[in-house]
Amino acid sequence: MPPARPRPRTGLPRPRPRASRRGLPSARLWPYWRWRCWAGISAWSQGGIAALWLHLSHARPRPRPRPRLLPGPAEDTRGAAAPAASAAASPARAPPLGSAAAGPEPPLSRPKERTPGDARPGAVEGRSGAVPGPGPSADSRVSPAGKAQHGLKEQYRVGSLLGRGGFGSVFAATRLSDGAPVAIKRVPRNRIRHWDQLPNGTSAPLEIVLLHKVSTGFPGVAQLLEWLELPNDIIMVLERPERCQDLRHFIRARGFLSEEVARELFRQVLEAVQHCTSCGVLHRDIKPENILVDLATRQAKLIDFGCGTYLQDTAYIHFAGTPSYSPPEWTHFGWYYGKPATIWSLGILLHQMVCGEHPFRRGQTISWDHQLSLPERLSQECQDLIRRCLTMLDMDRPSLEDLLCDPWMQDIHLP
Do both 205 and 259 map to the same domain? Predict the structure, then answer.
């Protein structure tokens, strides 16, 4: 009689051995591989799409944004070449074309600006050039190549820092040969974007080329005495009155200027700007900080041509200068003409002279029908001149010749 088999315990499941993937029954193997295939295909498709997108984004160059030539909301700045959120004037919206306040129609085609050479020459051991001119600056000697920096220390005693800006630093200095006061401007080479040629064929930064064109004996522009090219810097030696002050501090020390003093200084600035335009140079950064006043003679001198360029009849589509002095057509439309934009900045300058402050508060938006508020103590002729310069439509602004012939400039009181 065979032995009896042990009866399994009721209520407890029989333990199943843990099977490997190879031992999986077909009923369970199919869902497993179906999930693996689906995950693999999904990962492959997502990776393929991402790789294709990256390939296309690198293969197709992104188009450069074109400046808006039609009215629209003010845009933010692209460095020094796009409309900036002006600290003093940033209009929020331009009127539609066809309205009375729409302003001049934008150019039908993109005007081509006259741009000097952008290629920056490689660093050299050191060279210098003397710019002929009258006064204590006329020194035609040229330091030997490679010894320019050593010659600079031997010729000048550098003093205190006069100012620092986006283009470099300016120091007070004294020429050791005759004790004449000078200003030494140091600009790092990597901040110089435009180069051109002097009449003798020498490659030089555009600022030096422009100064060479305008500072040839004219007293209203600071004379360029000498310039040096060092491995890492460009050095400019400029004339400096012994006792001088920039117009910003000159106004601040007095609160505001009387109309008589303002007329005397403003006429000199107009003559300096007219001289520059007659030489084919556009300053583009006229403001009190860039006007030097000789405290002994009240002679005004225009300085700092770092934002300057060549004057052209067509519209500019790149801006350089101080945003709070930019004209409304640039803020609204993204283009401006050189001469009307200069008149706008001169109007702000005259307002600062006689009122002691910028005409537009920080963050204020200028509407096309804005009314400029002026102190009642100003003569009617002075108020009219400021309002004419700060007209929203650039075609309605006076020319430099009109300003020089204005009754206020001639001290003529109209009935």
Answer: no
Cα separation, 307 vs 286, in Å, equals 10
Q: For residues 254 and 235, what is the distance between their CA atoms, to the nearest angstrom? A: 34
> Which residue, 206, 239, 272, sits at the end of a domain?
239
Mean pLDDT of 305-333: 93
Residues 6+ apart with CB under 8 A from 146: 125, 126
Q: Indicate if 271 and 385 belong to the same structural domain.
A: yes
The larger pLDDT score, comparing residue 297 to residue 147, is at: 297
Q: Does one domain contain both 168 and 254?
A: no
pLDDT of residue 114 exceeding 60: no
Residues taking part in catalysis: 285
Residue 328 shares a structural domain with residue 364: yes
Write out pLDDT tens, residues 40-95. Answer: 665 555 555 554 454 444 444 444 443 433 333 333 333 333 333 333 333 333 33
Range of the domain at 151: 127-239
Q: Using 50, 70 and 90 to split pLDDT, how confident is the model at 361? A: confident
Is the pLDDT higher at 291 or at 24? 291
Q: Are 146 and 217 part of one and the same domain?
A: yes
Residues 6+ apart with CB under 8 A from 402: none
Do the Cβ atoms of 300 and 272 come closer than 8 Å? yes
pLDDT of 136 > 70? The answer is no
- CA angle (213 as vertex; 208, 219 as ends), nearest 5: 100
Proportion of the chain above pLDDT 90, given as a percent: 51
167 part of a folded domain: yes
- Both 379 and 259 in a single domain? yes
Is 64 a domain residue?
no
Write the CB contacts of 27 (distance below 8 Å, at least 6 apart in sequence). Answer: none
249 and 207, same domain (yes or no): no
| CATH number of the structural domain spanning residue 137 | 3.30.200.20
192-201, 339-348, 365-374: range with highest mean pLDDT: 339-348
- Are 150 and 171 in the same domain? yes
Tell me the two tokens of residue 121: 């020459």
Count of domains observed in the chain: 2
